[in-house]
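User: Here's a chain of 152 residues. Predict its fold as tokens.
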Amino acid sequence: METVIALCRRLLNFAASIEWLGPLLLRLGFGYFWLETGGAKLMNLDAFAARFVDWGIPFAPLSAALSAGTELVGGVLLMIGLFTRLASAALGFNMIVAIALVVIGDVNTLDEFVELDEVLYVLVFVWLLLAGPGKASVDHWLAGRLGLPRRD
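Assistant: Prediction complete.
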């Protein structure tokens, strides 16, 4: 039994020593996703703006450019962990608008709602907004340089 407890302690200590890795991997993967989708939308901005017109979104060309730009810039910021909370708020707002103006009309049940990709995206952005970018980020480094509180 002592061997099992010792092994559990070692595993927990190891997991604690690499806790910085989880937020980093999430930011890198999720940030790249937004960088790529935002870039693709900007490269095909006329088609993306036409979809905004179809959805009835006001000021479609401007709204489409702002939405795509938010995804591209927000994705880069998430990847490097700079202004992570601000980027998460902007990207989360972008997804809330998408839910409210585009996809909610096709939703009839709670099951259908929670299965929307946009809902999952919003939940990840809320997590990043509340938990922050983690230790392996420019935000964490800047907080230390500026003497601001940071989670160590």
